[in-house]
Each structure stands twice: as structure tokens, then as C-alpha cells.
Amino acid sequence: MGEETVTLPVVSLTRDRVGEVSVPAxxxxxxxxxxxxxEMVRSQLASRRAGTAATKTKGLVSGGGKKPWRQKGTGxxxxxxxRSPIWAGGGTIFGPQPRDWGYRLPKSARRAALxxxxxxxxxxxxxxxVDRLALPEPKTKRMLECLEGLGLADARVLxxxxxxxxxxxxxxxxxxxxKVLLVGGLNVYDVLGHGHLLLTREALELVAAxxxxxxxxxx
Length: 219
Known about the structure:
This protein is an alpha/beta fold. The chain folds into two domains: 5-48 and 104-212, Ribosomal protein L4/L1 (Ribosomal Protein L4, Chain: A, 3-Layer(aba) Sandwich); 55-95, no CATH class. Helix content is 32%, strand content 16%. The protein has helices at residues 25-28, 34-48, 107-123, 140-149, 166-172, 188-193, 201-212; strands at residues 5-11, 17-24, 127-130, 157-161, 178-182, 196-200. Strands 2-1-3-6-4-5 form a six-stranded mixed sheet, sandwiched between helices. Helix 5 (166-172) links the parallel strand 4 and strand 5. The longest helix has 17 residues, at 107-123. The protein starts with a strand and ends in a 7-residue tail after the last helix.
């Protein structure tokens, strides 16, 4: 028996059906594993943390090289530096230091999470495949016209292209609810962050080949 497939309609920029494309069922029709999506989003957000918070320890605060007073005979507690953490203006004990918050899930988990994200959009009827996406000029109004033709004028849309297209990318960059990615940058966080997923036929075929094959999928 061959691998089970799912057939998706391919539409034009006016939402007219112009064909269809078949992809492995595991790519867009698998189970939506919410716990895996949660872990993947946490991993992505952790990797985006700057991790630049820093405080000065006693050794980093300038000054304090001289002992404030002699060890004995003053009646006061012994002190070795005015930059001691118990002094005003002194160092900080166990304060935050620059660090890398990022961590990665196993490759199989990342691929499964992306498949689950695509499946969630397919199940909700918000995964749209267009035959091609081309604009006459890199103008915002042209992208708006394209989205209106697809019935996505007021939606949050993630557009996925197979190859870089400066015209499409420039036309979409001023639209706050529209984001353009290449297949290699497709990830769980952006798929879940946009209500509609718009892929070209070529982009979907590349995504399907990556997630259904033995290679590592983008996540």
C-alpha cells in the first residue's frame, strides 16, 4: 500500500479553483498535539530572549581598593572595602549576569510540532494554496488588492514563498497583519500567530518534501 495522501485545492489570486495538489497526510492532516506546540513556542521564545541583564559584583565596582579603617581599635565592625555588598554603592550578590536562555527540542519533536501547526490550520480551513503569487509592482496597495481577492483583507496572514521575491516582500512589509517567510524560515510560532496560512504550490511541495522526508524540517 502506498503512503496516504491528502489533496488540497489550488486557487488563483481571485480564489477560483485552478487545480489541486497532493501531499502526505502526515504533513497537514495529522493529530494536533497541543502540548508539543506549547513546548515548541516556549523554545522559540526562549531563544529570542536577549539575556543581556547584568549587575556588577564587588570585583566589578570601581573604587574600594583601600581598607576604610584599620582592622582593630576603632570600635566599629571590621571592613575591608567600601564596595562590599553590604555598603551603599557596593557590589550585588548573585545578581543577573549575561546568559543564553535558548534551548532546542529534539529534531523529531521540532518536525512533529511544525506538522501539528500545519494540521491545525488545515483543520480550521485556513490553509490556502495559490498557484502563484506575483505582483505587478512592490506597492502596499497591490498586496491589499491581492488579499482582498483572496478574501483575506482583514485577516492575519502568513505568506510562505518557495524563493525570495522582493516585490512581494516589499509590498507586504508595511502591513502589520501580514508576514512573508521563505520555506526555510517557516516556524511554529509564526504559523500559530497568524490566523491564515497562505502558501504557493511550490512552497507547499517543498514543505511537504522536508517534513515527510528524512531531512530536518524547519521549526
